[in-house]
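Example 183, ligand magnesium ion.
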Amino acid sequence: MTIPPDALRRTGGTAIKRVVFGQQAIADRVRAMGREITEAYPAGDLLLLGLLKGSFIFMADLARAIERPLQVDFMVASSYGQGTTSSGNVRLLYDPATDLAGKHVLVVEDIIDTGRTLQRLLSLLRARQPASLGVCALLDKKIAPPTPEIRFVGFDCPPAFIVGYGLDYAEDYRHLPFVAELG
Ligand code: IMP
Ligand code: MG
């Protein structure tokens, strides 16, 4: 896909290798996911629980594509215990103030890579006795073990490091309106 002419301005001159999912493709897919979610939750309280920071743009678009009552909250998670092995726990730096008990909780994620962060979060959230617990991710690298909670996925993602539409590299590039592979 051709790289939009504004991309270089947005990246301060750093080249991106290619656009993986363009603005229109994302908009179309997010609208379709909104319809899927609307149909999947015909009744009950629905809470969209976004994992910051990566989900912030996806969450804003997705919430507006869902045509039923819903609430929105966010979490900030951090894996403590640095290092490459993921023996550490997940700690919530911001814990949603919303009571999860009895609600349909849909965790909104930017991308599922190994799925480790998600696994730990899910067991933590399950303990709060939601009516149901699901995950909606914009992108899935398809290397995480099968996780029945992952109910909605925007796109299968190539095994590259990607940025944009909320996803960062060293806290930059989150504001690109498309998803791109770094050059
Ligand atoms: P996991 O625990 O390995 O599934 O890691 C998931 C988190 O790592 C995501 O929520 C992202 O913040 C980050 N991440 C994984 N892959 C990428 C990528 O290709 N680009 C940017 N961030 C990524
Ligand atoms: Mg990140």
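Summary: The radius of gyration is 16 Å.
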